[in-house]
Specification:
328 residues, globular, Spore Coat Polysaccharide Biosynthesis Protein SpsA, Chain A
Length: 328
């Protein structure tokens, strides 16, 4: 297909670019948004009080493209997901793309995802396959190996799936939508589920997808149109750089899973009993792993409490008790 035909697409999209200290990648990101062949864009560039050259780069860029505007925080929010909420609140359109400031995109990404979303109003979000990219913008692979162990063929081709089925088959097990920059979603559903969890440091994106897919379908585009960058200043990398005692809790998913269970109850959403049991099982695994960690640190009462909880809920298993006995 002639790419110039994409220019004719008129569905408006709001792009949110949340930035914090990504000056090294920011020009590349801004150009990859401005160069989208889907040209009907409203772009909000948010800076969370960066202390690098980000503001200067943003100010210079927006002078030359009236689709772009910027919003600078005077103090750092401390939360990527707080910036998500701020950006979505500014959106004038229902279709929203959160384009993280250190990632990149093929110039057809929005066109393909908008086309999918417009084909079915019941689709809550659409996402494409992602390429892995390092700090030097070199492609090092894709994310298909992340899902192959769950289903070796499902992610070979495009599909549309009921959201609850997708949760049951994939999303309750792991975050199979690993990068927000690959996702186009509906603002109405984002707001319906209460927005992003600003108190989360990690896993807030996973929590959002779980909540949103309780209210609509998911669409997947197999073509890798997103470039997900790994580097030592990413949110994940910075979380792992924290002291071990603090970062341990963040690297597991227990808080997110517990809050998802509360969300289901509050919204009177029925998932299959097997899906709910699976969520409880993963909570218990995280509880047991932290219990073992506490025992190693000499926190015996709390450690044993967590180990025993994990050993009996939601079903009896002896593995954590055996590991704990070897530690004491």
């Amino acid at each position: 297909m002639d790419k110039t035909l994409y220019k004719q697409v008129s569905v408006p999209v709001t792009v949110v670019i949340p930035n914090y200290n990504h000056a090294a990648y920011l020009r590349q990101r801004l150009k990859s948004v401005a160069g989208q062949l889907h040209a009907n864009l409203q772009v909000h560039v948010l800076d969370d009080c960066s202390n690098d050259e980000s503001r200067h780069i943003i100010q210079e860029f927006v002078k030359h493209d009236d689709r772009f505007c910027f919003n600078f925080n005077e103090t750092n929010s401390g939360s990527t997901f707080s910036q998500w909420n701020k950006g979505v609140s500014l959106a004038e359109n229902d279709l929203v793309w959160i384009a993280e400031s250190d990632d990149m995109a093929d110039d057809t990404l929005l066109t393909r995802l908008v086309e999918v979303m417009e084909s079915d109003a019941s689709i809550a979000l659409a996402y494409c396959q992602s390429q892995r990219m390092n700090s030097a913008s070199e492609v090092t692979g894709d994310w298909k190996d992340f899902t192959d162990s769950m289903d070796a063929t499902q992610f070979d081709t495009d599909f549309v799936m009921d959201g609850k089925e997708y949760i049951s088959r994939f999303l309750i097990h792991r975050n199979t939508i690993p990068n927000a920059s690959a996702v186009l979603f509906r603002k109405t559903i984002f707001e319906q589920v209460g927005g992003a969890p600003a108190h989360f440091r990690t896993n807030g994106d996973w929590f959002m997808w779980l909540k949103m897919l309780c209210f609509g379908k998911v669409a997947y585009v197999a073509e890798p149109l997103n470039y997900f960058r790994y580097h030592d200043r990413s949110v994940i990398a910075r979380a792992h750089q924290n002291p071990v005692a603090c970062s341990y809790y963040e690297q597991y998913d227990r808080t997110m899973r517990k809050e998802f269970a509360v969300f289901l109850k509050q919204k009177h959403i029925l998932l299959s009993p097997a899906t709910c049991r699976q969520n409880k099982y993963f909570i218990s695994i995280d509880e047991g792993n932290e219990g073992l960690f506490k025992l190693k640190q000499g926190e015996y009462i709390k450690g044993w409490f967590q180990v025993l909880y994990a050993s009996f809920c939601p079903r009896f298993k002896t593995g954590f008790i055996k590991k704990a006995l070897r530690l004491v």
